[in-house]
Amino acid sequence: MKRLAKGAIALMTVGSLLLTSACGANSESNNTSGNANASGDNNKAANQVELGTLDPANPTKVTFYSYSLAYPTMKAGMEQLIKEFNDTVGKEKGVIVEGVPDATFQQYKADISAGKEVDVVQHTFNLLDSSRLGLGFKAYEDVFPKAELDEHLKGISPNALELGKIDGKMYGLAFTFSTPIVFINGKLFEEAGLDPANPPKTWDDIKKASLQIKEKTGKDGFGLSPQNGWVTEGLILSNGGHVLSKDHKQAEFANKESVDAISMWKDLYTNGASAKGTDAEVSEQFMAGNLGMYVSSTSLYSGIKKASEAGGWKVYGGALPQFGDKESIPVNSGSVLAVRPDSPTKNAAVWEFIKFVTGDRGYTIITSQIGYLPLRTGLADDPNGLKDFVEQNPLYKINLEQLSRIQPVAIWPGESATEMATAFTDAIVKSVSTDADVEKTLKEAQDQINSMMP
Question: Helices 256-269 and 230-238, interaxial angle, to 10°?
Fold first, then answer.
């Protein structure tokens, strides 16, 4: 079990980094209408984009910065994705992709500042606008031919395609992400007299089940770290609240619905049956078999499943709980592919890589080997795709169903995005885990963020 715990710590470290950082924008917030970027002139320019000529005898190198390459639980799957491209399409067309591990989401920034070629980045959602403004990332419409782009995007979930848009243009194509899943320890549920195949549907049900697990087994019943980042916004949206305004110019998370959602979480967190600590620590507790329910991304499923098998218990799953009869609104974890090619030839090389890793074969590898949601949802019913995998791992059906009503988490606008994201997370942690007044704490953070708005 010591070896297992070490693996869990490694997995949960990336989970904490990724899930806290991985933010997108509310589909209403993210796409402002009537903007200059969506003008007829720019559409005309996009239609005129031409790709350079690739030469198999003299391959063009593409650098791909990826946090997944830096962690044991994701590394093999991402390496397979790159290798298959290089051995097939890359070899045929004349492209070689070089993967660069970037565990802390900082290496690509340093290398761009140093003048190195940084072509494609597995980029988190929350700072995408900041990278667009300061690091030279480009809209897909400006570097890839419109007809080819439109054709390739067919088959990808329309909701997913909205996640990386800023001012109506795609600065990131959704790549690896999940919706929140309530992982359930079947053994603890049964010991507490609960049915793991009938998971809690509402937050009131979650509270009741967590207390029952604590009473009957002595183990904590529920885990959701206030530092998790992305799930927080699902809570707010599910209760009718907002994080950003529709025009993406104001923070709005101190309204009544948002305050009520966070107050519910505070009550759940302090009821004596919830796990405490960072997301990595809570995740490790669940993997060790000492926690009844844990909310996270399916990117952790492979590690959780191995831990459950080693520990002699079965893992079940449930959808994001709802408030009363309001349908829950899940948000996304994960990443987009952000691009910054610097020549027509590099445009062509990057485009071949993008098409492969976000195509049928790419998403088959991403889901089966890493654990993320297949954004080409038809693969779940394809015998040559993921049908067998999904049937063997039915928890993914929950994820696919939630995709139909997903809304992205906030892409914080402007160059102060890091400071805004930090202020929001700090306010949530303070509101949930201390005696601080929730409404006052959120209002102060909202005012602070609005003072930084561009």
Answer: 120
